[in-house]
Amino acid sequence: MTSVQVDKNHDGNEAAGKAPEEGYQRGLGNRQIQMIAIGGAIGTGLFLGAGKAISKAGPSIILAYAIVGLVIFLIMRALGELLMYRPVSGSFSEYGREFLGPFIGFVTGWTYWLFWVVTGITEVTAAATYVQYWNEGIPQWVSALVFTVALFGINLISVKIFGELEFWFSMVKVTAIIGMILIGVGVITLGFSKAGDTASFSLLWSHGGFFPKGIGGTLMTLQIVMFAFLAVELVGVTAGEATDPKKVLPKAINTVPWRIGLFYIGALIIILSVVSWTVFKPGVSPFVAAFQQIGLPAGAGIVNFVVLTAALSSANSGMYSTGRMLRDLALNGQGPKFFTKLSKNGLPTRGTGISVGLMLFGVYINYQWPGDAFNYVVSFATISGMWAWIVILLSQLRYRAKANRGELPQSEFKAPGAPYTSIFALAFIAMVIVMMGIDPDTRISLYAAPLWALIMAVGYLAIKRRDSAQLTPVEPAEKV
Fold first, then answer.
1. Would you give the end-to-end CA distance of the chain in angstroms?
2. CA-CA distance, 430 to 420, in Å (whole number)?
3. What are the alphabetically sorted keywords of the record (predicted)?
């Protein structure tokens, strides 16, 4: 169902918040949705990226994750309010189209699609490099090809298989973090292993204080921390295929605080109490450093397996998301009609297939020319992911205003403190974007944004012209 149809039928079922029938099979149950939500918040940003953040901020990175975690929860509650109003697979693209205009919906759909294509390229390539940890003789391109084809095949079977795979991918990540926390607590309290003599919670402030790089150093890590949470909004894309979206999705969203508290803040507190923050370096997993300090020789291999799982999970989610986004755009006349058709199993295989083809091409490019141009594209993926959060918040503000005026039904899952909490989250994102411009490591992503905006504007104008031409009445030919 398009946003135009919704606008014409606010008094009908859609206005009442019923999920429209989009042709998908509702095969994702509570167990899968919960794990997809957990997995979306745990990725390589924690297992690898946290090392760079720790080296820049010291123990105060814990506070940075807590603050950003609060903002992420506000974003997810805003998304939850919209999902309970109208749970659709197009999610924030659909809401942007309805509440902010067709152009915003167009930009959001294509931008989020590009985000996952680029993310899929990087994650499959990363997964191939992780395989070389065990066997350097396996060419990187071979592993990348095998992973891509295998994940694509899984996405062609059924949405239940996708959900089951994500469940186990997330289970590996969750088990690894909980195991690290339990081992770390044992080292700190019982003093076993070679790290037992120095492990202490006092390490959180004994090497230069809690803010060893100053408040400014902590602030400059906020963009790194924000990137770690990209993809947490993926749970919204599953709305069209959840067995009971109005029951399952609120539960998944409400678990965000404890997930962040345990898997990010809890894990970092323990790691930084086992190993001094001065040990960590950019590009080195804090989990690997902690295992080495404890003296577990198998630790590096375990972490490598977990990071491999995280990369494959992200690539799998990308394949799932791209097909749904392309079909949503096509159904709304903002993409080729070719993508509207579903397979016998209710899957948007055409959109997924095209996206996977681009992922494979991207892997080839990365293998042949791993230069700066590719890194610039990867850098752009981060800002495009944040665009989805901005659209979610702005759409929720417009929806809440209309609902308060009685123009739309109230959501059964209101965001607490809105609209003020949504405004705060928007202001926080704006601050992070400013910091991205200050930091030379992330500034390049902002350079690419205007170019993509220009491409989107040209594409949208072309679609408008096409639609106008189709609606222009043809004068009947004169009889000779």
1. 45
2. 15
3. Amino-acid transport, Cell membrane, Membrane, Transmembrane, Transmembrane helix, Transport
The answer to whether 170 touches 39, Cβ cutoff 8 Å, is yes
CA distance 292 to 277: 14
Q: How far apart are CA 253 and CA 257, in angstroms?
A: 9
Distance CA 388, CA 395 (A): 10
451 phi, psi to nearest 5 deg: -65, -45
pLDDT band at 474 (very low <50, low <70, confident <90, very high): very low
Q: Which two tokens stand for residue 239?
A: 């709305």
CB-CB contact of 16 with 191 (8 Å) = no
49 Cβ contact list (under 8 Å, min separation 6): 224, 227, 228
- pLDDT at res. 3: 39
| pLDDT tens profile 116-152 | 888 888 888 878 878 887 888 888 888 888 898 998 9
Query: What pairs with residue 28 in β-bridges?
Result: 242
Joined together, the tokens standing for residue 197 give 């003599």
Cα(59)–Cα(211) distance, rounded to whole angstroms?
7
Share of the chain above pLDDT 90, in %: 21
- Mean pLDDT of the chain, nearest integer: 81
Q: What are 65-109's pLDDT values in tens digits?
A: 999 999 999 999 999 999 888 877 667 888 999 999 999 999 999
Q: Are 280 and 80 in contact (CB under 8 A)?
A: no
CB of 203 closer than 8 Å to CB of 272: yes
| Calpha distance 48→286 (Å, rounded) | 7
Q: At what angle do helices 30-40 and 159-190 cross, to 10 degrees?
A: 60
Contact by Cβ (8 Å): 100, 393: no
